[in-house]
Design brief:
alpha+beta; Double-stranded beta-helix; nine-stranded mixed sheet; 5 helices; binds N-oxalylglycine; binds manganese (II) ion
Length: 287
């Protein structure tokens, strides 16, 4: 049983992120889990290396954070794992017939937060590495509390109290979700509308909540103004001083807070194998 005495929290030294050491996620005591949860709220992204979780193990660990949320629509129009519809597979691998075995392929996944196109987006996602390429496919995270706190005054004035469109059409790898049509006018994109600034329900801190750039749109501004404002906001929110990058090893588990963190993934060699399993935790209405 992993017990609190042995739980070590080692901050990345960057704007966010910490590694948790000394735990086996399959056998966490209540106290050890409490320490992890505390580390999660302090550091926003946690890495736990050397884990060997089956899907039921990953699901059980996810449920300690809350109720699991089924993933967004995959590119094949159904869950990847018949037995575990709450688990999303992220992979570049394909079946012998050429059907993708997971989302996102081998290309770059642009900066985004998960499932913000839903009215109630997930609060956190947990990603477990089953297979990783020898290099490439690193995942970066950016602290959106700091992005909000360091916003230039004029941008703050411009966005204060405003609502944004969060398009559902494409995933972060630029893949069209099954059943969706191309969007020509972002003001009419299908997907949720959320405040640009949200308050974290646990920490009480405010953060920028941008979703993803593609087809993003600030309601109440004309389209050119919205585009220009979004360009500035995204450049600010993803600057290197707010970010930290994770290099994956097989067995890693990463947990990130989707309410106050953006993430992106580098492309990798298409002939390499990368396979991750993910669960998402149900969140709350952004406010
Ligand atoms: C995700 C995601 C990044 C990665 O699972 O939401 O963006 O490293 N994945 O595959
Ligand atoms: Mn993502």
């Amino acid at each position: 049983m992993s017990n609190t005495l042995f739980v070590e929290v080692v901050p990345s030294g960057k704007a966010l992120g910490a590694e948790i050491k000394g735990v086996d996620l399959r056998t966490l005591s209540t106290e050890a889990f409490g320490r992890i949860k505390q580390g999660f709220h302090e550091h926003l992204v946690l890495t736990i290396r050397g884990q060997d979780l089956t899907d039921p193990d990953l699901i059980d660990f996810g449920k300690r954070f809350g109720v699991l949320e089924p993933p967004g629509m995959s590119i094949i129009g159904k869950p990847y794992l018949d037995d575990y519809p709450d688990v999303l597979v992220i992979s570049n691998l394909k079946s012998d017939e050429g059907t993708p075995l997971g989302n996102l392929g081998d290309g770059e996944a642009i900066w985004h937060t998960d499932m913000s196109y839903r009215d109630v987006p997930c609060s956190a996602a947990i990603l477990h590495a089953w297979e990783v390429p020898p290099s490439g496919g690193d995942t970066s995270f950016a602290n959106q509390y700091l992005a909000y706190e360091t916003l230039p005054h004029d941008l703050h004035e411009k966005i204060d109290g405003r609502i944004m469109v969060h398009d559902e059409t494409y995933n972060s790898g630029g893949q069209l979700r099954k059943g969706f049509k191309e969007v020509t006018d972002p003001r009419e994109a299908p997907g949720a509308r959320h405040p640009i600034v949200r308050t974290h329900p646990v920490t009480g801190r405010k953060s920028l909540y941008l979703g993803r750039r593609r087809n993003g749109c600030i309601l109440g501004l004309d389209l050119d103004d919205s585009e220009e404002t979004l360009e500035r906001l995204w450049a600010h929110a993803t600057q290197p001083s707010l970010a930290w990058t994770h290099q994956w090893r097989k067995g890693d588990v990463l947990i990130w807070d989707n309410r106050c963190v953006l993430h992106r993934r580098d492309a990798f060699d298409p002939t390499a194998r990368r396979m991750m399993h993910r669960v998402q935790i149900r969140g709350e209405l952004p406010a």
